[in-house]
Design a protein that fits this description.
Structural class of chain A: mainly alpha
Oligomer: heterodimer
Strand content of chain A: under 5%
Low-confidence stretches of chain B: none
Radius of gyration of chain B: 20 Å
Number of strands of chain B: 0
Number of strands of chain A: 0
Number of domains of chain A: 1
Chain lengths: 64, 143
C-alpha cells in the first residue's frame, strides 16, 4: 500500500465515521441537511450542478 | 415505465467505454437536461436569494471555525468538521494530482478502478444520476 493510499484510507475512514455520526446524532448537521442548505439558492444550486457535471464528465468520459 | 427506461439507460451506459462518442454524447445530454430542468422547475421556487445565502453561509462557517459561543455547540462542531473534511479531501486530491506519482493516487484513480467494470460504471452512473436529479429538482419551495 502506497503512502498516498494510506492517507486516502484515513480520509475515507474519517468520512465514514463522520457521515455515520452526523446522520445518527440529532443536533449535528447531517449530509441531507448540508445538501439541502447547498441547494437553497440559485448560486448554491448552480455551483453544485457545475461540480456535479464536471465530476460526471471526468469520471465517465475522461478516465482511461 | 420511467423506472424501466432509467434502468435500461443506466445498464446501457455501463457498457460504454469512456472515450467513446456515445458516452460523451449521453453524459453531455444528461448534464444539459439537468441544467434545463433546474432552470424550468426552479423559477420563483428557490428558498433564499443568492446574496443572503452567500452571506449567511460565510457567517455560519466563520462562527463554526472562529467564533465560539455564537451558535449551538453541535452546529459549530458540525460545520467545522464538514469544512475540515472537505478541505482535506480536495487538498490531498490536488496534491496527488500535481505530483503525478504512482505512490500518490488521486481520488479519480480509485473511482476509475470501480468504473472500469460495466457493473461498477453502471452503479456509479446511477448514483450520479440520482444526485443530479436532486440537485436539479430537490429542496425547493412549494409553488
Amino acid at each position: 500500500m502506497t503512502a498516498g493510499a494510506v492517507v486516502w484510507a484515513v480520509i475515507g475512514a474519517a468520512w465514514a465515521l463522520w457521515l455515520l455520526a452526523s446522520s445518527t446524532v440529532g443536533p449535528l448537521p447531517g449530509p441531507l441537511r448540508v445538501v439541502r442548505a447547498l441547494v437553497g439558492s440559485w448560486a448554491g444550486r448552480a455551483l453544485c450542478l457545475a461540480a456535479w457535471g464536471g465530476a460526471g464528465w471526468h469520471l465517465f468520459c475522461q478516465r482511461p | 415505465m420511467g423506472a424501466a427506461a432509467a434502468g435500461g439507460f443506466i445498464a446501457w451506459e455501463g457498457t460504454l467505454a469512456q472515450s467513446s462518442m456515445p458516452a460523451h454524447v449521453s453524459v453531455l445530454a444528461v448534464i444539459a437536461l439537468a441544467l434545463a430542468a433546474a432552470g424550468v422547475m426552479g423559477r420563483s421556487r428557490q428558498r433564499r436569494p443568492s446574496a443572503a445565502w452567500l452571506r449567511d453561509g460565510a457567517v455560519a462557517v466563520r462562527d463554526g471555525l472562529a467564533c465560539p459561543g455564537r451558535r449551538p455547540l453541535a452546529l459549530r462542531i458540525g460545520v467545522a468538521v464538514w469544512v475540515v473534511l472537505a478541505a482535506a479531501t480536495i487538498g490531498w486530491d490536488l496534491t496527488s494530482f500535481l505530483h503525478q506519482s504512482h505512490s500518490l493516487p488521486t481520488l479519480s484513480r480509485f473511482v476509475g478502478a470501480v468504473t472500469r467494470a460495466a457493473w461498477g460504471r453502471a452503479t456509479v452512473f446511477a448514483a450520479w444520476l440520482a444526485l443530479g436529479a436532486y440537485l436539479a429538482a430537490g429542496g425547493r419551495r412549494r409553488p
